[in-house]
Specification:
The complex is a heterodimer of chains A (157) and B (178). Chain A is mostly helical and 157 residues long. In chain A, 66% of the residues lie in helices and 0% in strands. In chain A, helix 2 crosses helix 3 (60-74). In chain B, the strands form two sheets. Chain B has a five-stranded mixed β-sheet. The chains are: A mainly alpha (157), B alpha/beta (178). Chain A: Residues 9-152 form the CcmH/CycL/Ccl2/NrfF N-terminal domain.
Chain lengths: 157, 178
């Protein structure tokens, strides 16, 4: 009985795998094109289900856009042209990797800048502390000098 | 005194971030700004829903400020929105429809059953016009001016409140503009 249940569960699992894989099939001119398609759909974001890329999403709009990208590829468009085409319709939102331009400098270079600022602050603090820890400028008066000498003598004897 | 002020820097930074993040709590991340604001409607030549022999183009939408509503019978939220569109039509507001990725027979049945608020209704079976408009989920409603330039986009149901708060002031502005 248990064996029977296990077997049917296994069969079900296999069947689910097949059902998932059969969602869409596109024909590609060659393997390079297939890889280009996969890379593109991973780099573009689904406008409806916002935390999924186009390759990953099951939303109808994502399927439409995949078909559109495939069509544009077959028409001989470059990656850049395809991305521009989608950005013109859905906005820069569809790009997971925003372009490097004046407007996005803070986004791209901000973290590195903050890291640098942090290091500078640490450097300044450490230097200042080291400076304070070595009071080389302290001068003993004649009285203190005599007391120090007597203390040292006491200790040595 | 100077040292004391330096100690306040983290607090100021924290408050700045808190304000920023608090504001973020109330933003709707599913509402994308349209890439087509202040751009003319994309060119199209598609049949009318109620007359397959009549081909509509973007030029048919020019002349006066109007709403362009993307809808489909498969779209549950569109049903909720429909009475509001009917009411707006009664008020004399021009509404054009784009029947997005729909079956024509169901669309005709829907319009007969629920009343037709659309002055013109484009049949976009394949969703090509929807794609050019950047539609990602019906219902979506665009506000266009008399030259057919897109001025505003609302994603989701047009309720009375949405009309009053978001669309009506902009529509009024377009009506008053020369």
């Amino acid at each position: 009985m248990i064996r029977y249940i296990a077997a049917s569960l296994l069969l079900l699992l296999v069947w689910i795998g097949v059902a998932q894989a059969a969602i869409e099939t596109f024909n590609y001119a060659n393997d390079a094109e297939r890889e280009r398609f996969q890379a593109l759909t991973r780099e573009l974001r689904c406008p409806k289900c916002q935390n999924q890329d186009l390759a990953d999403s099951n939303a109808p709009i994502a399927a439409d856009l995949r078909r559109e990208i495939h069509r544009l590829m077959e028409e001989g468009n470059s990656n850049e042209q395809i991305i521009d085409y989608l950005v013109a319709r859905y906005g820069e939102f569809v790009m997971y990797r925003p372009p490097v331009e004046k407007r996005t400098w803070l986004l791209w270079y901000g973290p590195a800048a903050f890291l640098l600022i942090g290091f500078c602050i640490i450097l300044i603090v450490v230097r200042r502390r080291r400076h304070e820890a070595l009071p080389s400028h302290v001068q003993l008066s004649a009285d203190e000098q005599a007391r120090l000498a007597s203390l040292l003598e006491k200790k040595n004897s | 005194m100077k040292r004391r002020l330096i100690l306040l820097i983290p607090l100021v930074l924290f408050l700045g971030m808190a304000v920023f993040l608090f504001k973020g709590l109330y933003l709707n991340p599913s509402e994308l700004p349209s890439a087509l604001i202040d751009k003319p409607l994309p060119a199209f030549a598609l049949p009318a829903v109620n007359d397959p022999g009549r081909i509509l183009t973007q030029a048919d939408f020019k002349g006066k400020p109007a709403l362009v509503n993307v809808w489909g019978t498969w779209c549950v939220a569109c049903r909720e929105e429909h009475p509001v569109l009917n009411a707006l039509k009664e008020q004399g507001i021009t509404i054009y429809g784009i029947n997005y990725k729909d079956d024509n027979a169901s669309a005709l049945k829907w319009l007969q059953e629920f009343h037709n608020p659309y002055q013109l209704d484009v049949r976009d079976d394949k969703g090509s016009l929807g794609l050019d408009l950047g539609v990602y989920g019906a219902p979506e409603t665009y506000l266009i001016d008399s030259k057919g330039v897109i001025r505003y986009k609302h994603v989701g149901i047009v309720s009375q409140q949405v009309w009053r708060d978001e669309l009506a002031p902009r529509y009024q502005q377009l009506m008053e503009a020369p």
